[in-house]
Every structure is written in structure tokens, then in C-alpha cells.
Write a structure and sequence with these properties.
Shape: globular
Largest sheet: 9 strands, mixed
Number of domains: 2
CATH class of the largest domain: Alpha Beta
Order of helices and strands: EHEHEHEHEHEHEHHEEEEEEHHEHHEH
Structural class: alpha/beta
CATH superfamily of the largest domain: Dihydrodipicolinate Reductase, domain 2
Distance between the termini: 37 Å
Strand order of the largest sheet: 14-13-12-11-7-10-9-8-15
Helix content: 25-40%
């Protein structure tokens, strides 16, 4: 520590790593943290370290051995998050991994298992949307039980249109061997996390996935998945990178109400006066007639609340960094424990596997089977080594 602040090493100085450095050192958004070292395999990134007056290291291992940091954040390609996370914890250094926690569950489970042997160290994941006040409020409502049991969830999230040039800018992007997938591992991990964080982990999934549907890539750019929560409750998740207009709409239907989130900015919460089945069973004949005439007085059946909670750009990421440091310094509970990273990876893997096998798969699928199928696709690409 230095002056009561956590000394952070940034591993990987691309878009995310540079942004975190600015949040901490230029904008003062993380008062309990300092950037004290930077590592990157590209020697030209040494200029970034010079800009902040901190030492530069050509690889993450030399940074971990330097004694310059108390903690690291891994802003590197997805496959490397578990490897670097384990190495940091093994060196007695706190670790904050970027999303997703990894590409396949077997490597993420190894990371979680190792982290469990280091309870004295802080292990977090950059799920910045958990720091979004709107989604925090929605989770509070669901967790309180006031709306009863969830019966159906739906999320359409297609607001990340990507032109072909985006995929052509680097050889590793949108490949099985370099990135580990497409929209599910690049753009949608935050929503996959929030979906389960708020609504619970499903029991199984059936998916229809298109690979290279509207773009010249080998990985998925169009996904529709149906999940089964058990007891008749279901959910759907639709995402794509070829919808120029884009939609972001999240719905949760429960026994005593409904939540509809539009554009991740405004939520409408409907609260029924009592359980929907009770309302159904006790409507009078006249009320049923009024229903079909469009004359039913709905104010007697439910109330509506609009929730409009916004946060300034950068505050969500900065908030996760600040919370991570607060856990190290004062034991403040983590917003996003690193072990939670397995949930989104597991669901993304299950969606892939369901589409590859053409059938519904349990959420606790065969990890070795998934890795075998993934490696088959890596071999077909012929660009990268198998995992």
C-alpha cells in the first residue's frame, strides 16, 4: 500500500486498461487506489507507463515479481484471464479479472478452485453493470419477494451493431482460437451475468445460434436461447451484432407483478394487488365482460412505478475498482466476487453446446465434451493452438 491506497498493476494496456488508468490517475474516480505499474507484451505500450510515471514490464510475470503492486487487473484476451488470475493469487497479489472470467468452464473452475485456497486475498471480476443503480434496485425488488415467484424472463439485447471492419481489424477477433466465440463472449457477458444475478441460474438451455450469419466470421453473431428454471418457469435471451437500430428490453414476469426495463435506463414496475391467479379466479361475470370491452378498471388490480436511475459514464467501472480496493483495505463486501464469473461462462458454453449438439443441455453439462467441441472448431480455423 502507499498512503493508505492500493497499488494497482494494469496488465494489458488496450482500450480497457487505458481507460482504468485515466479513471484512477487523471479523473480521480477511485480515491483509494493508485496505478503503480503497467505490463504489456507490446513494447510500444511503454509510452503509456511513461505517461503515468510508473515502471513498464514486458510481461505479466515480471510485473508480479516486481514488488511494485498489491493488486492487478487483467485487461487481456479472454483466454488469459484465468492464467493470470491464478499467477497473481499465487504470488500473494489481489486479482481483479475482466469479463468474461474465461472462455470455457473448465479453466474458470480451476481459477475459482485456486482462489478458494487464498481466502486472505481479494478476488473480483469487472461486472460493472452490477454497480448500475437501476439494476441494483431491480435486484432488490426481486430479492425482497414482493412480486412473488418468477414465471418468465425475456431479454432482447441487440444494441451492439458491429460492421465487418470491426472484425477485420485484428486476426484474433471473432475466432474460436483467439477470442473463444462471438457476441456471447465479447458483447453480452454483462447481460448474461445480470440475467442470472437477478433471476437465478437456470437448470437447462436450448439454443438456436447462427455462426457467420450476417458477418464474415466463424463465430456466433445471432443467438436465441430458451432456458428452463424448473417448475414451469422459462426465459429467453436474444442477442446479435447485425441489428443496426438495436433493442434493449428486459422483462421479468412474476406471480404478483412485472418489471420491464427499457434501454437499461428506465424500468416500469407493476405490482398486482394480489396473486394473478387469485385475481383470475375471483373476477365477477360483469368484470369479465368489462375486460373484453376494454372497460375493466385496472387501477383496482395493480399499481405502476417508473424507476429512472442513471449514472455518469465511467462511474460504474470506477465503482467496481473502488469497491475492490475497499475490500482489500477494509473488508467491505465485494459487488462482484470473482467466483461469480463462472455463471456467465457456463451459460454461454451451454448455449454454444446446445446449438452444436442440436438439443437441450443441462446447465451442468459435460465440461470435457464442451472442450472437445471447442477444439474441433479451433482446428477447423487452423490459426491457433488447441486448448
Amino acid at each position: 500500500m502507499v498512503d493508505g491506497k492500493v497499488r494497482l498493476g494494469i496488465i494489458g494496456v488496450g482500450t480497457q486498461g487505458s481507460m482504468y488508468a485515466q479513471f484512477i490517475e487523471r479523473r480521480g474516480l477511485v480515491p483509494n487506489m493508485r496505478v503503480t505499474a503497467i505490463a504489456d507484451t507490446d513494447p510500444e505500450k511503454a509510452s503509456a507507463a511513461a505517461e503515468y510515471g510508473v515502471p513498464f514490464f514486458p510481461d505479466y510475470r515480471s510485473l508480479l515479481d516486481s514488488g511494485e503492486v498489491d493488486a492487478v487487473v487483467t485487461t487481456v484476451p479472454h483466454y488469459l484471464h484465468p492464467e493470470i488470475g491464478i499467477a497473481a493469487l499465487d504470488a500473494g497479489i489481489h486479482a481483479l479479472v475482466e469479463k468474461p472470467a474465461g472462455v470455457y468452464t473448465k479453466q474458470v473452475n480451476e481459477l475459482n478452485a485456486f482462489a478458494a485456497t487464498k481466502p486472505e486475498l481479494t478476488f473480483g471480476i469487472m461486472f460493472n453493470q452490477r454497480n448500475n443503480p437501476l439494476y441494483q434496485r431491480i435486484k432488490e425488488i426481486i430479492d425482497s419477494g414482493e412480486l412473488g415467484t418468477i414465471r418468465r424472463t425475456n431479454w432482447i439485447i441487440t444494441t451492439w451493431w458491429r460492421p465487418q471492419g470491426y472484425y477485420d481489424q485484428s486476426e484474433w477477433r471473432a475466432t474460436w482460437g483467439g477470442e473463444g466465440g462471438g457476441v456471447l463472449v465479447n458483447q453480452a457477458p454483462h447481460q448474461l451475468d445480470l440475467w442470472q444475478w437477478i433471476c437465478g441460474v437456470p437448470k437447462s438451455v436450448y439454443a438456436k445460434v447462427a455462426y457467420g450469419f450476417r458477418r464474415d466470421i466463424t463465430v456466433e453473431d445471432e443467438v436465441t436461447a430458451v432456458v428452463d428454471y424448473g417448475d414451469g418457469a422459462t426465459g429467453t435471451f436474444t442477442t446479435a451484432t447485425h441489428d443496426l437500430v438495436g433493442t434493449d428490453r428486459f422483462e421479468i414476469l412474476a406471480d404478483r407483478g412485472k418489471i420491464v426495463v427499457d434501454r437499461s435506463k428506465i424500468a416500469t414496475v407493476t405490482r398486482l394487488i394480489k396473486d394473478e391467479q387469485d385475481i383470475s379466479a375471483n373476477l365477477s361475470t360483469d368484470e369479465v365482460r368489462n375486460l373484453f370491452k376494454g372497460q375493466l378498471n385496472t387501477k383496482e388490480l395493480y399499481t405502476e412505478e417508473t424507476i429512472d436511475l442513471s449514472s455518469a459514464w465511467g462511474s460504474q467501472h470506477a465503482g467496481v475498482l473502488e469497491n475492490f480496493a475497499a475490500n482489500i483495505l477494509d473488508g467491505i463486501p465485494l459487488l462482484a466476487p470473482g467466483s461469480d464469473g463462472i455463471n456467465g461462462v457456463r451459460l454461454a458454453n451451454a448455449i454454444h453446446l446446445s446449438s452444436w449438439l442440436g438439443r437441450e443441455v443441462p446447465i451442468d453439462f459435460d465440461e470435457d465434451l464442451y472442450l472437445t467441441e471447442l477444439n474441433r472448431r479451433i482446428r477447423e480455423e487452423g490459426k491457433f493452438a488447441e486448448r
